[in-house]
């Protein structure tokens, strides 16, 4: 693949559907503006639930075909987001969905959770070498909410950036997905009296396993024009997100803002100019000096 776009964005996600739920608006937003968007998914999501009764037999404990099926869902989601460069880390099926923390699936020989860090990171470095992304998005050290594959995706992405540094192909900026506490609090208020309150039993935003103080947020990407593409991408993951999901209920109640605005903390690189009380960037490429693709000869020692 010859990549000529001046802006190149790399996303490292754990399972098919994480890209759409967590960063779908950002991906569609940048893809629509000519940025080369590369999605790396680390597993096939073999251990996911199945919300389509007619496909229940694909489950890991049955035919164990869910992973292969989810390749097609992910391809459809990428089409909705306008993203054509999608890869599985090490190739499809190299790493297996580890399942939730503490389950026996964590010990499967191919479980991503057990992957050798440098080996897995090396596979990502190969992609960095080819794509030369200026910006990378992944999860925080807790994997946003604690799933072992999300934690491992974080470790692999950060290690790859470290390994790629001396070659000059590490991303200049690294972002972690985040939800500001103020946004969580607003969501909790809005749902307080709803019968299908996804926050039922939660007293305060601080009690949730995610949520970042607003002053630690670095970027707010207003991709409301990509909100519809994000929702369409999520709907492509029909085995994982039923049509009755509260996510769609929230989307119809809050509209563009809920689907189309995504937030990030900056984990590496220099923050660009921003605005508002906390100086939030509105562009992940803000402050980056040159966005030209280096000639292959200047690509550094290998
Ligand atoms: Zn996931």
From TrEMBL:
Q: Which cofactor does it need?
A: Zn(2+)
Identify the stretch annotated as signal peptide in this record.
none
Which GO molecular function annotation, any one, does this entry have?
N-acetylglucosaminylinositol deacetylase activity
Pfam families tied to this protein: PIG-L
Coiled-coil intervals, chain numbering: none
Q: Which Gene3D superfamilies match?
A: LmbE-like (3.40.50.10320)
InterPro entries, per this entry?
GlcNAc_PI_deacetylase-related (IPR003737), LmbE-like_dom_sf (IPR024078), Mycothiol_biosynthesis_MshB (IPR017810)
Q: What does this protein do?
A: Catalyzes the deacetylation of 1D-myo-inositol 2-acetamido-2-deoxy-alpha-D-glucopyranoside (GlcNAc-Ins) in the mycothiol biosynthesis pathway.
PANTHER family the record matches: 1D-MYO-INOSITOL 2-ACETAMIDO-2-DEOXY-ALPHA-D-GLUCOPYRANOSIDE DEACETYLASE, N-ACETYLGLUCOSAMINYL-PHOSPHATIDYLINOSITOL DE-N-ACETYLASE-RELATED
Record NCBIfam families: mycothiol_MshB (TIGR03445)
The entry sums up its family as follows:
Belongs to the MshB deacetylase family.
What is the name of this protein?
A: 1D-myo-inositol 2-acetamido-2-deoxy-alpha-D-glucopyranoside deacetylase
**Species per Swiss-Prot/TrEMBL record:** Plantactinospora siamensis
Task: Name the lineage.
Answer: Bacteria, Bacillati, Actinomycetota, Actinomycetes, Micromonosporales
Write the gene name.
mshB
